[in-house]
Give the backbone structure.
Amino acid sequence: MAQTTASIVTYHTPLSELDEAIASLVGVDKVWVVDNACHTPTRMRCLQYGPRIIYIGADNNGYGAGHNIALRAALDEGSDYHLVVNADVSFEPAMLSAAIAYMEARPEIGLLHPRLIYPDGGEQYTVRLLPSPIDLIARRFMPRRLFSRRLDRYELRSARGREISAAYVQGSFMLLRAAALRQCGLFDERFFMYPEDIDLSRRIAASGRWQVVYSPRFEASHHHHAASYHSARMLGIHIVNMIRYFNKWGWISDRFRRESNRAVLSQI
């Protein structure tokens, strides 16, 4: 039977939210809660769950760096699959078991991402094209009506209900095959927050061996706090880290972005 681990990175996360996330992970062999705030109530709550839930108080070096602490431990312990999941995501435990069985039957999948919905049932468009600077500027700072066609295309809104292979899925739920992580690496810790999921997704998709698959046959609920829309500080962090992303992969010239996006659009 495949060994499955998971990690949640917290930062002053409400305990009720953490409880709901942990309740979704009842079938997981081991869960690391990496607390970037070293929040005593979070530590005490994790201790109440027993040895399957491992609390780690960490320096706040970012979302990806926090998950990497757990990912290194999971790989060292021989985990077959590791779920990177937000504390504000919840789902039926049977869904995760079914998703792992699906990956077992399809060994080419290195990363699986489900359909994510808001608690009221509204759709979240969490599988996207690899972004260009214009996509992100238009999405964040311009009236949507002026760029609606471009943004609908970027957010792959026409892919609703379809299973597709992509190169960018949101990091709130990433079911990762350990073998893909060993080949492609962990989160790039140069990104404090936000584009670390784009970066890891594209590296797996570009490996030549693994697929990144969005499959709406699996579903989870995501509160999606979208901190950069409510905090000037978080917006600044988002901008700085996206600059780092484009410095790494290219602002204008990005051959893989062009080829990958063409391949994704051909599926819909």
User: Anything to note?
Assistant: The chain has a mean pLDDT of 95. The CA atoms of residues 73 and 79 lie 9 Å apart. The longest helix spans residues 232-249. The beta strands are 4-10, 30-35, 53-57, 81-85, 89-90, 109-117, 164-166, 173-177, 211-222.
